Amino acid sequence: MWLQSTASGQVSFYGAPASSNFGGNSGGGESSSEDGSGSDSGIFSKKPFNFTLAVRQGFDSNVNTTPSDPESSMYTNVGAGVNYSFGTPRLQLGASLGGGVTYYYNRPDDPTDFNANFAVSANYRATPRLNLSLSTSTAYLSQPELATVGNTNRQNGDYLYSNTTLSAAYQWSEIISSVTSYNFTALYYLESDLNQNQGNISQTLAQSVLWLWKPKTTLVAEYRANPTLYYGADLDNLGNYFLVGFDQIFNPRFFWNLRVGAQVNFNNNPVDGASVYVGPFMESTLRYQLATATSLSWTMRYGTEASGLNDVTQRQTFRTGLALSHAFTPRLSGSFGLNYLVNYYDQPDVIQSYVENIVDFSVGLNYRINRFAGLEVGYQFTIDIAPEETERSYNRNIVFVGANFSF
Length: 407
Fold this sequence. Notes:
By secondary structure, the chain is mainly beta. It has one helix at about 190-200; strands at about 50-60, 75-85, 90-105, 110-125, 130-140, 160-170, 175-190, 200-215, 215-230, 235-250, 255-265, 275-290, 295-305, 315-325, 330-345, 355-370, 375-385, 395-405. The protein has an 18-stranded antiparallel β-barrel. A hairpin with a 3-residue loop joins strand 2 and strand 3.
């Protein structure tokens, strides 16, 4: 698994609803070929296309994520999407295209937000030993995505975010295998000055060797090279990761992936010049299907990320995300998400070092009226606490009700 984001469990506020299964999805609005109600979805379904529509009415207490005198507004959102899935014993394909428009009644400077997302996933068993996979998504967004590594954590206007991963897994013997992967991530802000200072392209080439130590335990050694290039700022850097870990399958419902090791970054900075950072790195993913109706995921990550500040090369960030979904009845289901970030900023001659804490909490309920329609209600609370840099602190409440339709 490529860990570009922590598990958010975040309720979808602005995009297309999940494919078919209104009650069973707790994600942030991105559809997947794995979602579905059982009768209408799945890679061998006679109905490969699924169309979704959502209409929502909500309230946002701080539309501009400002630290003081927040501007609140009611809003109306309409989101729509189409999902496609196809499968054979050797090839599985999934694709989604969605978007939405949100109108704020009390945001006169820019009352309308647009968002759009296109995603494709493919998995191909080329030979009994070789498996190839592709995962790519590109989104046009207006709201911050706290669960995504390296993304903005506050309102910075419209931006494009693209993430693509190619990987090849080869089984050399019964106990030895390898995975080679390439990741391309781009962050582009439509506001020119902001993009020149913070927009960037990040690439990662990773090679891992896996040893099946025990029937349910696989030991892993991995190296990653991660160059990041900025569009305008002199903040280019090269990251190197030396990692070990394991993939543990406790039972068919419960697994845990862990990577730990060292991170060595060769950084540039327009003020301080060249420097070298050496520090620890860790990422962990735990998933547990408690029962047919309940699923739980917990992720953690510690390492450096793009700072999001002008002339600051990086920040050290610990982030963890918890996502829980549960079907109370065949018609009623709920989702819960909690994300916590601790950011440490330190750039001599540019800023004084400080710590920033961010908590993002969301909960949602979905009621499925019938095969084609459902109702939903959601709430999200976000707070950013930075005592030494009060201009970064803010809190935000969002609540909405809506109706979903699937065809």
